[in-house]
Amino acid sequence: MSDTSRKIGLFGLVALLILGTGIVQSWNSALLILNMGLISAIMALGLNLQWGFAGLFNVGVMGFVALGGLAAVLVSMPPVPAAWSAGGLRVILGLLAGAAVIVAAAQVVNRMKRFRIPAMIAVLVAGFFLYRWIFDGGVAAVEAVNPASEGYLGGLGLPVLLAWPVGGLLAAGAAWIIGKTALGLRSDYLAIATLGIAEIVVAVMKNEDWLARGVKNVSGLPRPVPYEIDLQNAPEFTERAASLGFDPVTASTLWVKLLYAGLFAVVLAILLILAQRALHSPWGRMMRAIRDNETAAEAMGKDVTGRHLQIFILGSAICGIAGAMMTTLDGQLTPGTYQPLRFTFLIWVMVIVGGSGNNFGAVLGGMLIWFAWVQVEPLGRWLLELLTSGMSEGPLKAHLLDSAAHMRLLTMGILMLVVLRFSPRGLIPER
To answer: Taking each helix axis from N to C terminus, what angle separates 359-387 and 395-402, rounded to the nearest 10 degrees?
Structure first.
């Protein structure tokens, strides 16, 4: 089977699975799987740039996705005038003071020849107390403003689509900080740094209510597509839905999800085209040469650390874009839902199963693994009910039925083992 035929067959299988979901279950479920599958494919594409192109072991995908979600709030939500009046300026001054303290400490280290360490410690300690005095007062004032529904500064009130590239920029900035710190060291240092930064990002989002309401969540984000209720009240839409045999409620729900799918598909197509062009460019060939033998590439005069920083920033930016898209689809930011199992481990499974180093493989893995992640639990429940149908009621039967929730983890492990056994380079391997 040729490579093209293999790709067509596998993507056709994914399409049949989604269509089958619509026929057997509901089209609402099928479109929801499609939308989240497209977003997951973008996340997998970003990770594939880092691991498949350059061999960078990033286990902090969750943090970059969370920064993208934060961007959706900071860009699209309207500002809270009362919060800005109460302490917004003081919060900004506090952040600037903290940044100034760090810069001052760095200057002390670089310019002083004697007593550098004591002077740096003195600057940091004094600066810390100054920063906390300015910042804490502003935070307390902001969070006291109508905390039941606000208690934060809000955003810029711009169109939510602008949050998608901004989410990429936030993630790219975090990747630059991590890369400047950890790239050039052993790969395990990069893994530790990305994991730690991801947990720090989520912890800040959970605890700093002034930023995005913390665990109180931000809901009601603006949408790039119409609201269902507006469609249901539009005579033209209801007439068109009736002519197709749909009631207005069902038709509006499906139409909104189709519009989201169109937007996500356009973004995925653009990123996939750019990634393919990068892969087959001299830059892409250089990246793979560095991945395969860093020592030889460095001996040829290549800036290995600089190139690693480039691709690490690019891959993280793509994950940030996907995070902003996901928050836009959900219509809310819920920091408590950012878990490594969903936003790091599962994305790695997608890349490994789809085919590391192959952009189409990453997209396929994102779609296929997300479908399995969603459907395994209900199918597992059905299977366990079938297997235990002849058993008498008791603790053993109840325990087996309760174990259906764990079928996801078991299935993901089995899928990865089967693929690694029979197709170690993934379903669509690198060529």
So the answer is: 160
